[in-house]
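Sample entry was shown:

___
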Amino acid sequence: MLRLPALAALLTFGLAFASAPVLPPLPVLVPSVPTETVPPTPAAGLRGLWLDGFGPGLMTRAQATRAVNDAAALGVNTLFVQSIRRADCLCLRASVPPVGGLEPGFDPLETVIQLAHARHMRVIGWISVTGAWNSSVPSRRTEQVFQQHGPDAGLNSWLARRPDGSWKSGADAWLDPGIPAAADFMAGSALSLVTHYDLDGLQLDRIRYPDGGDWGYSPVTLARYRLETGARGVPAATDERWRSWKRAQVTALTRRIALEARGARPGILISAATIVYGDGPTDLNGFHATRSYAEVLQDWPAWMAEGLLDLNVMMNYKRDGVGDQAAWFDHWNTFAASLQRPGAAVAAGTAMYLNSPAVTAAQAGRATALGLGWVGYAYRTPTAAVYAASQTQPQGFAAVQAALQSQDGSPLPAPLAWSPPSVLRRAVLGRVVGLSQPGGVPVEVYAPDGQLLGRTTTDGNGYYGFADLNGERAEVRVGDQRWTESLQAGLTRFPNLLLRQVTRVND
């Protein structure tokens, strides 16, 4: 347990969020703040398609135009467009460099937004939050994060590592959410999309640790963990205290991005592409035994309950006809449907690339029958035959379109527009500054009548936040320090709390 004794502290308005990138928003692109609660629309109205940037499809204007036209013909109303891929972007105005191989002067994200909005489709910027590099298609730009903070950068390396110091997960390098500078970089990258593009939403992918469960052993991450918990030595991968601490870092990064994005663009939809390996649970206790929670450290039911996600798109990549996978698919959908509430919708993302068109249509139908939305992965590989290179992409896409639109009651076409569930949120974002190690500081928020509204801890950069508070005023407490602020609709930034000293006492 951490105690904060009464020590000299100052509340200051002048201290800016110094470590966060300063990216001025474009006011003409920001919608007005909602003034009232909007009745929720069933998530089943969502029909989506992922447009990935791992191959042809978004690299030229002709490809992007064809992709949007094909999506419109299919009947989808929401495009999840890969934007930040591996700390590079299929765009020109983000804080990370553009991907290699783009048509000169061409901005894929801007073009898709313009074309899709003209057809009344929503555009969600899909980002790989922790993606850093891939050895098969390495970025060699000197400004790319891997070149600056890769495996040979010593304590300035931001990569997730195993206990033996290795950093590759297959061909990929991942950034570690437990490293404060890396978390700041990831939050700033996401914010740069929100402030520079007219996006309807942001989707957080790879907002987790890599598969395997034995990650997070960067010297910087381990030093933070020991300081904040009093633990000694190197924790085992199965140490639940260690896993819980790392899980909290993933959630803190999710919270920071969600709140910063909502502050920059009120009304933006926050989504995550979430992990649903294996069979689905029947309740939250069962979820805590899944690989989602125990291995990759992604607690997405808690994110939904806290109000961090407006839309959870499960990557429910199962193959009907292979073992019990059809039942696994349905079990995950049933579990997630039980968690839906106003402002927290769920969609089933299905693996078109692993299935036949008939199975894709059947899975989409079963998901939407439960009141979930549907999102297909992916436009570039719409069938198992295309993925196996035994069918061309146009042939496969036409086959999927025929299957989805072949009979009455089929999942597509959907209504032209989908209005996501929307609620009026009052959120708080603040920061504790002045400490050399500001992470892990307990923060509480109270209503004016003294009712405890929420409890959290600061992240490695000192940020804390509350996504969905009741009432029009709130008091934040850190130790015996208190600050009360009126809450506006949307995000209220509290002044920085400057602590001169914090003594941690471990029980």
